[in-house]
Amino acid sequence: MQNREAQIKDLFPNQPDYRYKQIITQLFQVDNKTWNDFTNLPLEMRDELTHKIPFFTVHEDLVQVSQRKDTYKAKLKVDNGESPAFIESVLMLNPRNQWTICVSSQIGCAMACSFCATGKMGLSRNLTDDEIIDQFRFWQHFLIKNPEIPQRISNIVFMGMGEPLANYNNVKSAINSILTHTDLGHTKITVSTVGVIPSLKRILTDPEWPDVRIALSLHSADKQTREDIVPTSFKTFLEDIREWAREYLQKFGNRKHHLTFEYVMLKTVNDTREHATKLANFVKSIGNVKVNLIPYNFIGMEFQSTTPAHMTKFKDYLTDHGVTTTIRKTMGEDIDAACGQLITKNKS
Ligand code: SAH
User: Fold this and answer.
1) Beta carbon of 166 within 6 Å of any ligand 1 atom
2) Torsion angle, CA of 83/161/57/211, rounded to 10 degrees?
3) Could you say which of 29, 81, 92, 290 is the most buried, measured as most Cβ atoms within 10 Å of its Cβ?
4) 207-258, pLDDT tens digit by residue?
């Protein structure tokens, strides 16, 4: 199916280019609640749009708020004409008192990481670029309706359901549209990936790939451990990632543009001194890479979380060995909105 921009062009052929751009830009302006609010368009055009093109491709089913009121999770219905399904999208208050949204890129996920709830769903389908864009627009509209909370969305992370680099074209198109039509800059958007090597390589040469931040879900620099917990790992994964990361940093890297390795902390599985040493050595063999340790959010009996005290020790070891390391703050666990907890039931 064509995306919204192409549908608009089909509906109104032979318009000047600025007209299409104007329409899409207005879609991101939150005062516009229906096509009819696009008052700079002739009435007939607004009517056509109203009848032919959905104003939103995602629809609120349920919004939950965490006890601390710093995290909201939306269950959204998507329906691209095939079969209706549900995705989740999360709004999190960041230290600057603005919002970071965590968007989904697929319905379910095919990567089956052993510690992730979404991985247990399997993959239903890719989200369209409009369905990704509309998660951002959904939260914009949500904030306007809740004027007592901060209003600005300052960051977007592709850390919801799905593997964004397994949906390369739609993710790219959504990001480019958001960069063109909003005031969000490149460094405010992060794509998190399990490490889909062909897509990662494509990023290096694709002139249309937006220069946004990449976070790579490494989870272990030990070959066997990574293969045990991330089933998509293959024999030369770590070497391939090292080679790719060096090239990436050569092309995109500067002080503002580092690479991040995410590392979910699983008790005794990947959090020993030996793992820390391997991780430090791996990072140092690459360059400007930061490590973000993620507390494991409970999704089943298979794994236990590393204790906070041990996580600090692991972090200190890395820092002492020259690796910039942060610990991710867990948010929204009381509403199952934390990393790896997003799961929806979809009719097949
Ligand atoms: N497919 C992307 C986005 C996944 S979600 C990726 O693999 O990067 C973002 C991060 O949360 C990833 O690093 C993912 O591995 C991590 N994660 C998954 N399940 C988790 C859990 N139960 N607890 C903590 N982090 C988890």
Assistant:
1) no
2) -140
3) 92
4) 999 999 999 999 999 999 999 999 999 999 999 999 999 999 999 887 677 8
